[in-house]
Input
Amino acid sequence: MKNTQINKYILKAKNNWQSVFMLSTVLIIIFLLGVITGQRGRVSKANPVTQLNNQNADNVKLQALTNKVFPQNGYVFNLQWKDLGKRMVDDGVIDEKKLAKSLVGDQPMPAQLTKYLDGSSQKIELNESNSHFWVNVLWALGLANKNEILESGPMVQNGNTANFASTGGYTIGQKQPMDIYNKYFYINLTDKQQRQVAEIASNIYRPCCGNSTAFPDCNHGMAALGLIELMVSQNKSTDEIYETVLAFNSYWFAQTYLDIAYYFDKNERDYSKVPAKEILSKTFSSAMGYQVIRKKVGTISWPSLKSGGSCGA
Output
């Protein structure tokens, strides 16, 4: 009898101990969950402010870099356009209606653009609103102007001259591209100036491909060639030519040069003080070079960034 009662007490004690243990375990779990939840709550309350401050700081930095790549009011170059636009229209190299269609659709071309086609001598202005106009018009100039680069360079070496984007893709003229290719004496160069054009062109790359301007197989390359020829003919310094081509390239490939500016900043170099020739080199401005830079800087959300131009009109 005593053994039976003792066993009952022992069983009851075990049950009580198990209940106490389970209750204690539950309380501990509840306490730990409360601590974790509280910490999460504190973190979540702190995060928005921290994130906002970091985001604001990043935006200020990105805007400062943007201003270095694109001056607020654009550029006005000490470079005379003279009557080149009118001459190209008169020769059928440029069809004004087709040019307008490529730029503004069915709307009339604005006066700030038509002034470069009416024969009046104008200084070249460059900004976000007219950069597409300039890539098309300089493309026409580079394509039509007679130059040794087009006559004996890579464009003709494989017999496929008509099939490049800069030739077959030219659709804003009254004439067929190969009927105007390397035909007109818009810009006359001395032998020395021609050598200078060739040297500068071989040092300037564009992010849409791996070729230098000495192989202008796309619209941007042909436009850069026309610009170089124009500047050399007006006796501009080599440094000024590189700086000017960089300005045009920057508007034509905005993301590329913003990312490059960011890369230099991360490496403690002021983009505005880096030589334009270096920035335009194969290391940075070719398609392959830029991809290396892009991998290093990652994806950056630039404020108010618009998409770049294609290799067509």
Observations:
- The longest helix spans residues 2-69.
- DSSP finds 16 helices and two strands in the chain.
- The first strand starts at residue 75 and ends at 80.
- Confidence is low (pLDDT under 50) at residues 1-17, 35-46, 49-54.
